[in-house]
Amino acid sequence: MVGDKGWKKWLVISFFLLPNFIGFLVFIGIPILTSLGLSFTKWDLLSTPEFIGFDNYKGIIEDTEFWSALKNTLLFIIAYLPTVLIVALGIAMLLNKNMKGRAFFRAAYFIPVVSSWVAVSLIWKWLFNPAYGLVNYFLSWFGFVGPDWLQDPQWAMIAIVLTSVWKDTGFVMVLFLAGLQNISETYYEAAEIDGASPLKKFLHITIPLLTPTTFFILIISLINSFQVFDQVMIMTEGGPAGSTTVLVQKIYNHAFRYFEMGYASAVSWVLFLIIFIVTLIQNRLQKRWVDYEQ
Amino acid sequence: MNSDVTVVTKKQTTQPVISLNKRKWLKKIVFYTTISLGALIMIIPFLWMLSTSIKDQGETMTLPPQFIPETITFINYAQVAESFPILKFLFNSFFVAVTSTLGQLLLCSMAAYAFSRLHFKGRDTLFFIYLATLMVPMQVTMTPQFILMKYLGWLDTYQGLILPGLFNAFGTFLLRQFFLGIPKSLEEAAFIDGASHFRVFFQIILPLSKPALATLAIFSFMQSWNNFLWPLIIVSNQDLMTLPLGLSILQGRWATDWNLLMAGVVISVIPILAVYLFAQKYFIKGITLSGIK
To answer: Mind telling me which residue stretches traverse the membrane in this protein (chain A) (predicted)?
Structure first.
């Protein structure tokens, strides 16, 4: 650095870095280590923590509620991810054309994204109302009698997935739009000269050149959907009959309802491990399908 | 090759012009219908929210549902405001979102400056540790953070709401990437003229980084405004609740009074929508730049 020596240099570094670093240490670094430590203890916040080794982790394996929370989280992801990807890609393809009112449509699809999850959940809870909700009223036009969505264990998760797809479509769409705009027109022009059909152009140009974007979206959506919580908490609180209890709901219940800090920490580390492994696998697999040719 | 081309042109010319035009129109109609249906699905829930919020309770239970109520009433808003400190919720949301945004901008940009422009031993290792923590979900840190708040006596305080959110590595990472792209020669000239690091930071780096700062600002604001889990954990006093948390207790009280609930939801959605419509460009840019919710 120009002209800085010894203590003066460290003074400059401290000025810039220390405020952030201390906060980072206190609110992120130490809590991560504490949580790992706590996961080997039994602690109700009042008594002194009791070291119990791997008992929490053993407990998790035997905890049927944990497995059902994991199953529910996976069910959510399996239903949510492909749906949101396909719907958002479809809309992005449509909006990528030069058209009238593009700004309006973009804004419309984006409004749910900026609204809070709590607001969105409440609106949809009202829409899913079995007697006076719009969803069942709409279904009645076609002669269907809609279920009591949020009170029926068979439908509650589907309702949460639909709400989530509705809220996140605009977000994923914007990412896809950015990806589409990076594809050079020359590819399509060349294909046109060869007489390729729109379907062929989509399958052989758009899809391959969009794989980096898709990979990125998959990674962040997957990480986010393992942490699904707000909509569940507001719409069903994990019910009915535990049919929508997801992993984070389980962590929340143990930590802040039953005050089992050790057990909650252990579950949160299992959640981290799952996310970590899934991300690693995705990274490994990316070579097989992600096309960085551009 | 040559014959191929002639075949294609022949095909096109044999088709009557009118049918081509018709097909074009049909395509257009299908296209706009699809896209408008989609937009309707996005907007109707919000219109339904608005309409419910100006109905009396009896009218929320009519079949078929009515979009424009027979008697329009704003009494729901008054009643929500009377029974709940909803203006206080609004203020708390604003206060928390604005302070954490400003705080993050300052703290992250300073740290990013150190990580991109200053040289010291262990810098890159430290930065790698910062980055690694991004993989850890907030559920891992929330329990110890809650315990820390409890021992500091910060449950039900503004600092408890604001401070822990200021220090995630994302902002530092985003700004560092941007700072790295600013040419070194700019600051070298300033140093030769005798400028200090503070001047370079405030008068060269920050002004040049407006797009990145705007992106981070939008993100912190939106995240803080919509945050539910952290306030849920540490706030129990109504006077400190932010809007999402306030709404959730509204729902506890008025589980079936949808007109009142929706009035509350309208109050919470309008400000963030206004901010969005005002800064649309940055929202979209921010999302594409970082892709983090």
So the answer is: 12-33, 74-95, 107-127, 155-180, 201-223, 261-281
Token pair belonging to A28: 């992120």
Q: What residues in B contact A182, CB-CB < 8 Å?
A: none
Residue A51 three-state SS: strand
Amino acid at B215: T
Q: Which two tokens stand for residue B160?
A: 């408890």
The whole-angstrom distance between A154's CA and the closest CA on chain B is 22
Residues A111, B283 contacting (CB under 8 angstroms): no
pTM (two decimals): 0.90
CA distance B111 to chain A (A): 5
Average pLDDT over residues B72-92: 92
Biggest alpha carbon–alpha carbon distance for chain A: 81
pLDDT tops 50 at residue A1: no
Residue A150 sits in a domain of what CATH number? Answer: 1.10.3720.10
Decide if pLDDT at B181 tops 80. Answer: yes
3-state SS, B123-159, equals HHHHHHHHHHHCCCCHHHHHHHHHHHHHHHCCCCCHH
Residue A42 main-chain phi, psi, to 5 deg: -115, 125
pLDDT at B233: 96
In-domain check, residue A248:
yes
- pLDDT per residue over A72-82, tens digit each? 999 999 999 99
Helices (H), A142-243: 156-181, 185-193, 198-201, 207-209, 211-226, 230-235
Q: B167 vs A29, B171, B177, B284, CA distance in Å?
A: 10, 8, 17, 24
**Is the Cβ pair B43, A111 closer than 8 Å?**
yes
H or E element: which one contains A50? Answer: strand A50-51
Q: What is the DSSP letter of A134?
A: H
User: In this structure, is residue A20 part of a structural domain?
Assistant: no
C-beta separation of A149 from A159 below 8 A: yes
Would you state the structure tokens that stand for residue B69, as one six-digit string?
Answer: 């109520």
Structure token pair of residue B138 = 């907030």
pLDDT digits (tens, 9 = 90+) for A264-286: 999 999 999 999 999 999 999 98
| Number of domains chain A contains | 1
Q: Could you please report the per-residue DSSP string of A215-275?
A: HHHHHHHHHHHHT--HHHHHHTTT-STTTT--HHHHHHHHHHTS--HHHHHHHHHHHHHHH
Domain span at A174: 57-288
Distance from CA of B103 to the nearest CA of A (A): 10
Of A107, A89, A92, nearest to A218 by C-alpha is A89
B105-162: pLDDT as tens digits:
999 999 999 999 999 999 999 999 999 999 999 999 999 999 999 999 999 999 999 9
Residue A277 domain-assigned?
yes
- A25 lies in a domain? no
